[in-house]
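Following the same procedure, the fold was encoded as tokens, giving this record:
***
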Amino acid sequence: MKPIIVSIKSLQRDEKGESQTLELVSEGKYYKKERSQYIVYKESAISSLEGVTTTIKVLADGTVCVLRTGAMQQRQEFRPGMETTSWYDTPLGRTLLIIKTYACRVQLVDGIGTIEIEFDVTITGMGAIYNQLTITVQEDKTTWK
């Protein structure tokens, strides 16, 4: 496992055109298992997901899966041009999400680089929300080995 710094910039825009941006930085770990790359970090109060561990799994074909465990459970899959479904499980109940991926670009070399994803999320009973997600991964050189 390699210590890393994960920077996430998220832009969300609703059907009315109102947008919201969120940026967060977290320490994490990177490792490779077989042909997949893994980025693991803990969420913070800033993301409203405190108590959740996020794992980003990048498959050899460029598919990106985001897995969340802990205080809530979720699995999202991003494949350009495809629509996937996901369940968002919280202590308050389960919600169905429909994810339509427009772009998924992965530029990682030994866990260092960027992942850019553009997608719509439709939540049961609500409209679609457009998202741009940029994940930048850098080696954590402050960690003593």
